[in-house]
Amino acid sequence: MSENDGKKTLGVRGGPRGGSVKQSFSHGRTKNVVVETKRKRVVVPKPGAGNVAGAGKPAPVGDPSKRPAGISDAEMERRMKALQAAKARESEDAARREAEEKEREEERLRRREEAEAKEREEQERLEALKAKEEEDERQRRAAASAAAAPVAEPEGARSAPRGSAPSSAPRKAQERDTESKRPAKGKGMGDDNRRSGKLTLNQALSGGEGGRQKSMAAMKRKQERARQKAMGGSQEREKIIRDVQLPETIVVAELAQRMAERVGDVVKALMQNDMMVTQNQAIDADTAELIIEEFGHRVVRVSDADVEDVIAQVEDKPEDMQPRPPVITIMGHVDHGKTSLLDAIRDAKVQAGEAGGITQHIGAYQVKTDSGATLSFLDTPGHAAFTSMRARGAQVTDIVVLVVAADDAVMPQTIEAINHAKAAKVPMIVAINKIDKPEANPQKVRTDLLQHEVVVEAMSGDVQDVEVSAKSGKGLDELLEAIALQAEILELKANPNRAAEGAVIEAQLDVGRGPVATVLIQKGTLRRGDIFVVGEQYGKVRALINDHGDRVNEAGPSVPVEVLGLNGTPEAGDVLNVVETEAQAREIAEYRANAAKEKRAAAGAAVTLDQMMAQAKQDKNVAELPILVKADVQGSAEAIVQAMEKIGNEEVRVRVLHSGVGAITESDIGLAEASGAPVIGFNVRANAPARQSANQKGVEIRYYSVIYDLVDDIKAAASGLLGAEIREKFIGYAKIKEVFKVTGVGKVAGCLVTEGVARRSAGVRLLRDDVVIHEGTLKTLKRFKDEVAEVQSGQECGMAFEKYEDIRPEDVIEIFEREEITRTLD
């Protein structure tokens, strides 16, 4: 310690070191300033302090003399505990680091040992391969020397003089050529000159030097040629003569495959015959016959119809047959309760999803009874326009359930259903429905059926009859029991272990999924990945969807499924057959399409000149109403066309210019404009370009979802008796942006009104990919949190449908009002 101006200063041994610094100022003065340099303090513990708390450490809590000033007992104790915890952590970290280091070292040693073992194995394998190659080479040399020994000297060499130039010169030149081709010694190849062109494993693994090396197969071919040369010349392989089936036209690649020749050789032969074609082009039978004969094969001409012979017509053995579920078709007059009866059996609500409460399509469902039996049901429409669809239902069914309303008795479609069942020779069960109504008279139904040769058991006949009520569920168990009894009598069996065969019940073009066909499997089992041909279309099964909407991997006999993976929309009623290859399926489909086209052309051409003149004369006096029809499924389009053909008389008729499946497009609008025809959309809508084009060109588009309304409107327009009727007026469109789930309300769609106005009192339709999904009314229309009467275009709102919640983002809501207007015939 040292004194300075009466104050204590901290010092070290020897005291502070003095020094002076010279300061210079801007006005020229200088000043010397004395400074003091202090050394760093070094704290030296006193003797005896180490055995108390350790050097440089705080004194224990109980020794106040060695505790720093101003530190309480509690603070001192806390500091000691913190110090001990830090020491413990340091020791744990050190132990952990040591263990990790030890593990890493062991892992390095283990990997090194594995690498060394692997290297030793590879070395041993290479040595074994090398030894085997040397042994094979020695055997080849021995065989070659043994073969070359008995070769006699040519006769010309014996006859010529020994020293003559003509014989010695070629031999010397050959020796020089051989010597020049022989590799030099000492270049890694040794004395064995045969190994100069051999590809060893080391060369293959190392990739070689000097770029690309020859393949092992090329080296083997070279060695084989050398061996054959040493054995006395190469022997030509014997050519295999094949019988090549030749249709009317064939693709070049398919022709090469049938001849087992290279495609390049076939293309080259065609080019030599002045035909510049590629492997994917088709050639006629005469040209193909020339090429086949040029390659030395035999031609077998086949007819185009022979392509269908690949469809296996397998005769099922009795031991392969297994019981299958029966296929039951529900038939009857419209509004007699067919779908309601099936709903009661299925415990579902299908009818609520059908427009107008009537069935527009054939529905296919499977039902399990309480006894465990599986039944396949087909629900057919009852309207007169759906005659062909009912006929298809009778063709694929085992049992027909004829539904007759007890309060309405036998009606026209009931008679038609009876005729279909009799034509198909299918057993019938009569279900007398609506038995719970006060005006029900089941005895009148039984009596009316007698007029059509249907004698029920109650009238001493052989046709079962059951009184049921779809509403109350009465008699359903008796109906299922009657169906099971009839199925047991029929002893229905099928072979599931064969190529699948089925009938198309319905077909449609889905924008998101492509062509979709509802198929009822009749024989075999259809699996995912199967290649099939159906009518004029073919495809590969991409997915199978059952009646519950679930994806399945296979479908056996009597199972209805939706099939995805077609290249086009088939006709309802077409037969689906599974084939082996896609080429066969494409060939069969093309043949069928060409045959159908030729048949249509022949039907159009088979008209005499007198008939054409009579038709033209008649057409002058007949007013035509041209229309263009687009529907959601094939069956509906077919039914509408048939209904339109029945409308008309000697003065007026309806002509369908075009009918198709899917949304209304610009090409449809163009055709309608050229013909002055309206466009009829049945459960479909026009896309945005088509709507814009229709507005510009003045083409009328009419939308329908119930076939009654469509037929009535067209009939009224054609007859000129157009009175007051209800027409729909579209007042707006809204697009769903988000879907929210609200407690007590259900799903609510957050929408943006894109066109017109949305009104609470108006009717609404839900469109998905321009196809009608639902039609109904609004449960709520809200703007922010308030219930409003209407929402203008460009504003956002919330909408909820009455008794319907299957709404998704990007769906479109169509808002319309029905108004009474007076129409006139144009």
How would you summarize the topology of this molecule?
Layout: E1 2-4, E2 7-9, E3 17-24, E4 30-37, H1 73-148, H2 155-159, H3 165-181, H4 201-206, H5 216-230, E5 243-246, E6 249-251, H6 252-259, H7 263-272, E7 282-284, H8 285-294, E8 298-301, E9 322-323, E10 327-332, H9 338-346, E11 363-368, E12 374-379, H10 387-395, E13 399-405, H11 412-423, E14 428-433, H12 442-450, E15 464-467, H13 476-490, E16 493-494, E17 501-510, E18 514-523, E19 526-527, E20 531-534, E21 537-545, E22 551-552, E23 554-555, E24 560-566, E25 575-579, H14 582-605, H15 609-620, E26 623-631, H16 634-646, E27 652-661, H17 666-675, E28 679-682, H18 688-697, E29 701-704, H19 707-719, E30 724-742, E31 746-759, E32 763-768, E33 771-783, E34 786-787, E35 790-792, E36 796-801, E37 812-822
Parallel strand pairs: 5-8, 10-12, 10-13, 13-14, 14-15, 26-27, 26-28, 28-29
Antiparallel strand pairs: 1-2, 3-4, 6-7, 9-16, 11-12, 17-18, 17-25, 18-24, 19-23, 20-21, 20-25, 21-22, 21-24, 30-31, 30-37, 31-35, 31-36, 32-33, 32-37, 33-34, 33-36
The tally of strands reads 37
Helix/strand/pairing category: alpha+beta
- For the residues shown, what is the average pLDDT? 76
Low-confidence stretches: 1-14, 48-59, 151-175, 183-193, 348-353, 356-361, 382-387
| Structure annotation, total helices | 19
Helical coverage, percent range? 25-40%
General form: extended
Side by side, the strands of the main sheet go 11-12-10-13-14-15
Radius of gyration: 48 Å
Question: Main sheet, how many strands, which sense, barrel?
Answer: 6 strands, mixed
Strand content: 25-35%
Calculate the terminal CA-CA distance, rounded to whole Å. Answer: 125 Å
